[in-house]
Amino acid sequence: MGSHAPRQRPGWAIFDVPKIIWAVFILLGCIATIPPAVIYYARTAPKVEPRIHLIQNMDNQPRLNAQQTSNQFRDNRAMRQPVAGTVARGAMVDDTHLWLGTVDGAFATTFPDSITVDHALLERGRERYDIYCLPCHGVSGIGDGPVHKKAMNLLENGTNGTTWVQPRNLHEDAVLEQSPGQIFHTVSNGMNNMAGYSAQIPVHDRWAIVAWVEALQVSRNAPPEHVPGADDFKQVVRTAADAEALSEPAADPAAHDHGGGAQ
Ligand code: HEC
């Protein structure tokens, strides 16, 4: 007894367990960190082999990838040519006039036989144009749609790089002289910075849009005899020179009515 008696720590009996128990606890604690560490490693470390994948189902099967070689074939290519005469889905072009806008390899100068250009087609074309083309080319086709305006805005603020290709003015001579087939081709396949729409717009609607683009073009340069009621007016204002020529005050209001769209 005396000075070698164990010190009493009332209320802290838990600390009185033998050292061996402590050792076992600490060891178990260390071992317990191994599974999470392994899981963490398995989930984050890059590996070439597939990760642990107990239930395979049909997830991993032997196969040849595109551009690989394979000595199963005489030419050592994994990629095979389609059987002769195969036609991709949606690529059956029986009527090139309708599907490609070409006749004998040249852009068609007329609408295909299966498309009737009537009021209903124009209405459809206007609606589709307003959805797909107006954002860039503008309601009248002069290339001033909201996308263009926004892009110019961003350009001026310096937040949109330094270049922007303005959507084409569809009333430029270079576009005016294009045949329906060529416009159909542009709508279908795009041009430079403009994307093609063959995947989004069915073929009939693309022709309807072509009809509407032509209607917009005609409306810009319509001769007075094609404009109902135009006989009442002496001249339609198209240019500043036209406006100057109309010096008589009586003719002014009429001229403005008709020239509004062409300013
Ligand atoms: C995202 C903007 C955008 C949309 C949407 C768009 N265009 Fe364009 N379009 C352009 C641009 C830009 C050009 C000029 C391409 C160039 O010269 O790089 C162009 C050019 C054209 C041309 C002139 C082609 C030529 O030969 O000069 C036609 C015609 C045309 N578009 C018609 C249409 C029609 C019809 C639609 C709707 C189906 C449409 N575009 C939708 C941006 C657009």
Summarize this structure briefly:
By secondary structure, the chain is mostly helical.
Give the CATH topology of the domain at 115-220.
Cytochrome Bc1 Complex, Chain D, domain 2
Number of helices: 11
Strand order of the largest sheet: 1-2
Question: Topology as H/E string?
Answer: HHHEEHHHHHHHH
Oligomer: single chain
Q: How does the overall form come out from the CA principal axes? A: elongated
The CATH fourth-level homologous superfamily of the domain at 115-220:
Cytochrome c-like domain
Indicate the mean pLDDT.
84
C-alpha-based Rg, rounded: 38 Å
Bound molecules: heme C
Chain-wise SSE layout:
Elements: H1 19-32, H2 34-44, H3 96-99, E1 102-103, E2 106-107, H4 119-132, H5 134-137, H6 146-156, H7 173-176, H8 180-189, H9 203-220, H10 240-245, H11 252-259
Antiparallel strand pairs: 1-2
Helix pairs in contact: 4-9, 8-9
The structure holds heme C.
